[in-house]
Amino acid sequence: MSTNGFAFGSGAPALAGEVVEASTTEFLAQAIELDSAPPFGAFVEVATDDALTIYGVVANVQTAGIDPGARAIMRGHGDVRDERIYEENPDLPLVLRTTFRALVVGFADGDKLYQFLPPRPPRLHYSVFTSPAQTVRNFTRTKLGYLQAILNGSDVPVDELLAANLRYTSGQYVDGGSEFLQQAGRELAQLLRADYARLTAILRRCLAPIEAA
Amino acid sequence: MPLDLLELSTQVRQMGDVLAERRADERKRLRLLDDLLAEWRDRWLELAELAETVQERVAVPTGPLDERVPPSPRPPSYTAMASDGAEIDPDRHGGSGDFYLINIGRVRIPYGQPEREVEMRSVSSLGYTDDDLYIVDPRDPRRQVPMRDRHLDALRTVAEVRALADLAEGEQGPNGPPSVALVDGTLLFSVLEERPRDFLRTRFYTDFVFQLERLRRARVPVAAYASRSRGIDLVHLFRAVCGSTPLVCQVCQGAHTCALRGLNDAHLIGRGLERWERSGLFRVRSNVHDPYYGIHRAYFFLLSTGDETARVEVPEWVARDASLLRLVHAVLVDQCLKGFGYPAVLARADDRAVISLADREVLEAMVQQEMARRGLSARPSAKLARKQVRTV
User: Fold this and answer.
1) Which of A113, B59, B307, B319 has its CB surrounded by the most CB atoms within 10 Å?
2) pTM of the full structure
3) Residue B95's pLDDT is what?
4) A75 to chain B: which residues are within 8 Å by CB?
5) Which has the closest alpha carbon to A171: A180, A162, A160?
């Protein structure tokens, strides 16, 4: 399956999915193609009828049967494994779906950006786009109040999500986002000043991968 | 609580005794029948001749009774089509007037053809005009039969095969990969007539056969698949053979009931089948269907899926074409493998056909809204109203 939606450097937003559940603090979207949700921690956006653009951070991705009563069961046998299972059962992409949940972290009204909750949730069935790099840079260049919204997220692995979002966002800067990371570190130090161990655990996840021995 | 569970549990226990007894009795009778089968195994021509003289619907053997055919390898690419249907009967108690709904799930899955799209859809249609709701006798327009219950079932069966014919005509023809069309159940659906030489069978069977003819012209073999078949056409034939009079019967040897009672064709010839093997072909001789079906007269074979014995019916033009029959057999084996014992494409069609309780409520609300918009009253019958609002 293709993994579209990750639109580094491209100017136009890439269509990622469609809103199927919405509330003030989060929305659920169905990815346009099976297994093609934007990455965990990525910025996504939905336009509203009153010309606002609502921003969210992908906090959970799930693939399961469309019918809630129908569960996926093991289909591999012999040498029919992995992608070959999909080739043998071309009907699967029509009965499975990938959904992603995004925490709402702010919105734009024309040129103005706000890092708090919008007045209305996005409308059901409206398109969800992966935010272009320029939008991510604009949203994160000066203020990082949205990190608080992620910290307050419920039913999500908050620390993992914070780290994933910082890694993703720094990747949207041409220079690797060292300035952004420094600023984010300061912001988090402020937010987590009472919990040093947690802070360092999050920051460690933003660093280079562990080399395999 | 509407069930008297205490009383029921006693009855369930008693039923358990009877079921266990029946199962033991069945094994005993099967042993008796093995002798009968052995006697007739190679005398199938005699049996076939005899079958022609029987009034009842019977199976006519076309080869030795113990014939077993292993499946051919499945074609590298093929297209499976299936349709299934569900209906909502006109609701006498509802307030929304007379209408029925037929929902057909139609599915086409091209295997090994990544360039082709999978189609899975529901086609829902309401019947509400007088022409829809009443079947009119063409010879006597005063005679009208309401389209409901068994007649609506028959209408749905015809719609299922029409959906398959529509799919088949969209195929590439003989040059592309082969196609097989499946329906759930039987080709030999029943139409109840209220009086001799009534017009109802003509109406449904003529349309049904026309759809089968469209499939034949499109060169797409069609088969009806019945999971864990309880068909008894062969049992009927043997009852005709032995006369079904246990007291003088050599097989039953004076037992109080006929050894064939309660058994079905799968008991008789399904036991010898290895997984994925099919039995020989039998033609169903039916005085009801044959006059209408012509070259679409139904044949059947039994197919072992390992866990159970299924019955597969095909029209004569499939039965008489060895390559089509091989294709149907091979495709069914592949489909049952993919669908864990039941053809995957039929399961998908069933998913698209099922009308859930929620769907029914949505339809009911839509109809009531439309009536309210026009200022028409939509009051349910007193009985239904009493059910909806329970009083003490």
Assistant:
1) B59
2) 0.85
3) 67
4) 338
5) A180
Pairing of strands A14-22, B222-226: unpaired
Chain centroid offset of residue B30 CA:
26
User: Chain B: nearest CA to A4, how far in angstroms?
Assistant: 20
User: With bands split at pLDDT 50, 70 and 90, how would you rate the model's confidence at A54?
Assistant: very high
Q: Contacts of residue B112 in chain A, CB cutoff 8 Å?
A: 87
Q: What is the tens place of the pLDDT at every residue in A119-144?
A: 999 999 999 999 999 999 999 998 99
Write down the pLDDT at residue B132: 93
Which residues, other chains included, contact B81 with Cβ-Cβ below 8 Å and sequence gap of 6+? Answer: B106, B107, B108, B109, B164, B167, B168, B179, B180, B181, B182, B220, B345
- Mind telling me how many Å the CA of B374 is from chain A's nearest CA? 30
In a domain, B330, yes or no: yes
- One-letter amino acid for residue A178 of the chain: S
Residue A80: count of CB within 10 angstroms of its CB:
14
Question: Of A118 and B23, which is predicted with more confidence?
Answer: A118
Helix (H, G, I), strand (E, B) or coil at A132: coil
Q: Which of A70, A90, A93 sits opposite B110 (nearest CB)?
A: A90
ipTM over 0.85: no
Q: What is the CATH number of the domain that holds B295?
A: 3.30.420
B58 and B233 Cβ atoms separated by less than 8 Å: yes
Q: Is residue B253 part of a domain?
A: no
**Domain extent at residue B73:** 69-232+272-358
Q: Residue count of chain A, please give it.
A: 213
B-chain residues near A87 (CB < 8 A): 112, 114
User: What is the count of structural domains for chain B?
Assistant: 1
Q: Is residue B44 part of a domain?
A: no
